[in-house]
Amino acid sequence: MIVKICGIQSAEAGQMAVDAGADMIGFVFADSRRKVSPEQAADIGKKLPAQVKKVGVFVNEPIESLLDIAETAGLDYIQLHGDETPDYIKSISKPVIKAFSVASENDLKQLADYACEYYLLDSPAEAYRGGNGTAFDWSLANSETIPREKLFLAGGLHSGNVQQAIEEVSPVGVDVSSGVETDRKKDPIKINQFITAAKRGQ
Fold first, then answer.
1. What span, in angstroms and rounded, lies between the C-alpha atoms of 23 and 63?
2. Does the annotation mark 116 as catalytic?
3. 161-167: long-range contacts at Cβ-Cβ below 8 A with a sequence spacing of 24 or more?
4. CB 57: neighbour CB atoms within 10 A?
5. Do 56 and 45 contact (CB within 8 A), yes or no?
6. Could you tell me what percentage of the chain is helix, strand and coil, using 3-state DSSP and rounding each to the nearest 5?
7. Residues 111-130: pLDDT tens digits?
8. pLDDT digits 0-9 by tens, 135-171
9. Residue 135 and residue 178: Cα distance in Å, rounded?
């Protein structure tokens, strides 16, 4: 099970995630209380092991700006949470994780249009696209047309429900941000508990 800890804002938080066994860490470059600069992300990333993949989260970023940020920050993956088109993705040379807000089965029909490394199913947008701490109806993701080997699950996950989510959806990876925070800061105990629960039974 691939585990991504998103919304990393400090080297300390990044190291917490790495020490707990995270496979990926996420930097948010879209409007969010967890937003970081490309320079901050680069500085944090340089202090972490190379095998931990660095993911940049974007929402409707102009392609030239996205490519500049990806270069500056030293990103391994690009995660898109906006209204990006299949053609937009073709302009990105790095592997892409395309996020889809899931409110009904119809929302899942878009997946087939996108050629990307992973699909990420998330809760419907609230104040921000992603990172809102609410879960969607996981039964909507039971469609046999969804390739499980390319599927990430996000939205309202925490150590108490991630195992159930994995059993119901069978994703290749899970993505968490607010579910491992206390008072809006990454919590080492919650990070450990989440990763332990997510990787149980591997």
1. 26
2. no
3. 161/135, 162/194, 162/197, 162/198, 163/197, 163/198, 163/200, 163/201, 165/135, 165/138, 166/1, 166/198
4. 30
5. no
6. 35, 20, 40
7. 989 999 999 999 876 545 44
8. 888 888 877 778 899 999 999 999 999 999 999 999 9
9. 12
Other Cβ atoms less than 10 A from the Cβ of 105: the count is 13
Instruction: State the pLDDT at residue 130.
Output: 47
The distance of Cα 196 from the centroid of its chain, to the nearest Å, equals 18
Burial class (CB in 10 A: 0-12, 13-18, 19+), 129: buried
- Each domain of the chain, given as residue ranges in start order, spans 2-199
Amino acid in the structure at residue 56 = G
Average pLDDT for residues 66-81, to the nearest whole number?
Answer: 98
Strands 185-186 and 181-182: antiparallel
Fold for domain 2-199? TIM Barrel (3.20.20)
- Let me know: does 61 contact 53? Beta carbons within 8 Å: no
Identify the active-site residue in 122, 137, 175, 187. 122
Amino acid type, 106:
N
The pair of three-digit structure tokens given for residue 102, joined into one six-digit string: 């899931």
Residue 59 structure tokens: 């929402």
Does the annotation mark 76 as catalytic? no
Confidence at residue 27, expressed as pLDDT on a 0 to 100 scale: 98
Q: Tokens 């990307």 correspond to what residue? A: 116
Q: How many CB atoms lie within 10 A of CB 109?
A: 12
Please tell me the predicted confidence (pLDDT) of residue 170: 93
What's the pTM value of the predicted model, to 2 decimals?
Answer: 0.93
Active-site option among 6, 76, 113, 116 = 6
